[in-house]
Design goal:
Oligomer: single chain
Distance between the termini: 7 Å
Strand order of the largest sheet: 5-6-4-9-10-11
Order of helices and strands: EHHHHHHHHHHHHHEEHEHHEEHEEEHEE
Largest sheet: 6 strands, mixed
Number of domains: 2
CATH class of the largest domain: Mainly Alpha
CATH topology of the largest domain: Rhopdopsin 7-helix transmembrane proteins
Strand content: 5-15%
Number of strands: 11
Structural class: alpha+beta
CATH architecture of the largest domain: Up-down Bundle
Shape: elongated
Number of helices: 18
Length: about 525
């Protein structure tokens, strides 16, 4: 029966309202643009404050989206964490350069910038593959391998050979090549998000735009560094801030409700791995060309460190691939044997599970729970209400039966429970507990739903090892109990199929027939 609920959920547009999201994206884009221009071109304290505020706004917006996002909270939390690292590094840079605080070591600023890339790679990998079988970790390792290849080319073969000031520390020169290499790896991951069609096209384009702007800014900074390590390029600051702002706007647009992502062709999902494989030849090829065709000296130590890191990343990727393949097999086996709505075994898997083991393992009690009047509920409230009712019944059956029971969804309106080595008295107790839990009903939206059901109990001990027969006898008990209506427990008391009612568990019946329960 459906009764009006005393508490009606307030109607509100909510965080996923398209008009609100559109307004929020416009506001964030305008604010970031103003702060970026001011922070890049204004001089003195005004420019420094606007620069730091632009970084903080981008980080704050992304973290706020992560708190509200229904599906991609973890991904945007990683991205927001990366931008937070960069905001902290920018704050220290402003304190050191504009405020004249000399106690801040440059290495700390460089390390903060570098620490932003791992969470960013993790977040983008999560956005690449939002499905349950996502190969997120190997995607991250792919990005790391690509980064190492690009970093080797930029640092070992460009910075170390071309830089105009050899008096700078090797650590400083090493970090100068890290940022453009990291940005190029990030750009490859954002391109994969677009090609895999795992996110809205607008979100993917904004991510690619942000990664492109950041990469162009850091590559330009590297060019400036090679000619003058102490030079300043205002336009690079603008591109950098606009790139992070594009990430923030993409996060806001990702809140917009979207249909399920369309699976991309297999070729598009393998492009990053192919790029990684090709890029692995770039660095050694350039190094070999320098050694054979030029008179420049190559430092052995950085090459050895790069080879060690590349080998370590390759090993990690192999281990991750093996684990993810095993996990994919386990998940496929689970999908083939379970009902997705209730997380219970399918009928065939249930019968196989009950038939395995020794005679003692195959002895026990079978309960069959049949939900009533689902057709009337569908006609009155729709399919969502039917799914809600079945899932609620399944959850309460699972709570009453415990983890040791084997449970199945035999049919659309029938659930089964098998308890090994349980006596008939225990079966009656469990059936009674299930009916009491269902008698409280459930709230669906603004209506109160009853959960009418009949429970049939059959003993499958000793002389009756044929568990399909026990399921049939429990079904016979349910069919004989239908004449008594909802709340009835029918027990197959002996091994011949005689059905008796369990005392004290029958629920009072409404005066109207069951067929009008959901009208």
């Amino acid at each position: 029966m459906v009764e009006p609920s005393t508490q009606v959920a307030p109607q509100s547009a909510g965080i996923t309202d398209p008009s609100r999201i559109r307004s929020a994206a416009t506001l964030v884009a305008g604010l970031v643009l103003v702060l970026s221009v001011t922070g890049s071109f204004a001089t003195g304290a005004t420019g420094a404050i606007a620069y730091v505020v632009a970084l903080c706004v981008a980080a704050l917006v992304i973290l706020l989206v992560a708190m509200q996002h229904p599906r991609q909270a973890r991904a945007w939390r990683f991205v927001g964490g990366a931008v937070t690292f960069w905001a902290a590094a920018g704050f220290l840079l402003v304190l050191s350069g504009e405020a004249g605080i000399s106690g801040i070591p440059p290495l700390a600023i460089s390390v903060l910038y570098a620490l932003g890339y791992p969470p960013l790679l993790l977040g983008l990998a999560d956005l690449c593959d939002p499905q349950r079988l996502a190969r997120r970790f190997t995607t991250v390792v792919d990005g790391v391998l690509l980064f190492l290849g690009l970093y080797a080319v930029l640092w070992l073969t460009v910075v170390e050979q071309v830089t105009a000031d050899d008096s700078l520390s090797k650590v400083d020169r090493a970090f100068s090549a890290l940022y453009p290499a990291g940005d190029l790896a990030v750009l490859m991951l954002t391109i994969r998000i677009v090609t895999s069609r795992a996110a809205r096209r607008r979100v993917g384009v904004l991510l690619v735009t942000g990664a492109t702007l950041s990469a162009v800014a850091d590559v330009a900074l590297l060019i400036v560094y090679l000619s003058d390590p102490y030079g300043v390029a205002t336009i690079t600051d603008l591109l950098y801030l606009l790139g992070l702002g594009a990430f923030a706007v993409a996060a806001v647009w990702s809140l917009l409700p979207a249909p399920p992502p369309v699976p991309a062709p297999a070729s598009s999902s393998s492009r990053l791995a192919l790029t990684v494989a090709i890029s692995s030849f770039a660095a050694p090829s350039v190094l070999l060309a320098i050694a054979l065709f030029t008179d420049r000296q190559l430092s052995v130590t950085p090459i050895a460190v790069w080879l060690l890191l590349a080998a370590l990343a390759a090993v990690l990727r192999h281990v991750a691939s093996v684990k993810e393949l095993a996990g994919a097999h386990r998940h496929s086996a689970w999908l083939s044997s379970h009902d997705l709505a209730t997380d219970m075994l399918s009928r065939q898997a249930f019968l196989v599970e009950m038939s395995e083991g020794t005679l003692r393992d195959r002895s026990g009690t079978v309960l069959l729970i049949e939900a009533l009047s689902l057709r009337e509920l569908r006609d009155a409230r729709g399919y969502d209400a039917v799914d809600f009712a079945v899932e609620t019944i399944a959850a309460r059956v699972r709570t009453a039966a415990g983890d040791s029971a084997v449970m199945s969804r035999l049919a659309h309106d029938q659930l089964a429970v098998f308890m090994r080595a349980a006596d008939l008295h225990r079966g009656r107790q469990l059936a009674d507990a299930i009916q009491r839990s269902l008698a409280t009903g459930a709230t669906f939206g603004d209506v109160k739903l009853e959960l009418p059901a009949i429970v049939g109990v059959a003993q499958a001990d000793g002389g009756v090892i044929d568990v399909p027969a026990a399921v049939r006898r429990a079904g016979d008990a349910v069919r004989r109990g239908r004449v008594r209506g909802a709340g009835f427990v029918a027990v197959d008391a002996d091994l011949t199929g005689t059905v008796v009612a369990a005392p004290g568990v029958e629920r009072p019946q409404p005066p109207q027939p069951v067929t009008t329960a959901y009208g």
